[in-house]
Amino acid sequence: MKKIQDCTVHNIKNLNKDTYILELKCPEIPETIAAGNFAEVRVDHSADVFLRRPLSVYDVDYKNHLVSFFIKIIGKGTALLQELKKDEIVNIIYPLGNSY
């Protein structure tokens, strides 16, 4: 069953100039979430970005309540997500889609 949650930015690991891993700390992670599922992530930092961004789940750490997304910058929304700071709030809807 999908959930709508406010999660906090735990870490952003920049891999190169246009690829990064976004780690979110969530209050409760659904047991059904796995790599291959995706989340709809709201970008609140710009009036130009209206729609949520669909991001594939890269990793789940149930013990530490972390959900990670491997992201390639392809537009304004994914670029804005890279600029988030630790402990900023991000609203997500997940898990969506099918896992592997």
List the helices and strands and how they pair.
Blueprint: E1 3-16, E2 19-25, E3 38-41, E4 53-61, E5 66-72, H1 76-82, E6 89-96
Keywords, separated by commas or semicolons:
single chain; 100 residues; mainly beta; Elongation Factor Tu (Ef-tu), domain 3; six-stranded antiparallel barrel; 1 helix; 6 strands; 49% strand; globular
Give an overview of the whole structure.
With 100 residues, this protein is mostly beta strands. The protein has a single domain (3-96), classed as Elongation Factor Tu (Ef-tu), domain 3. 7% of the residues lie in helices and 49% in strands. The chain contains one helix and six strands, in the order βββββαβ. A six-stranded antiparallel beta barrel has the order 1-2-5-4-3-6. A hairpin with a 2-residue loop joins strand 1 and strand 2 (19-25). The radius of gyration is 12 Å and the shape is globular. The model has no long low-confidence stretch (mean pLDDT 91).
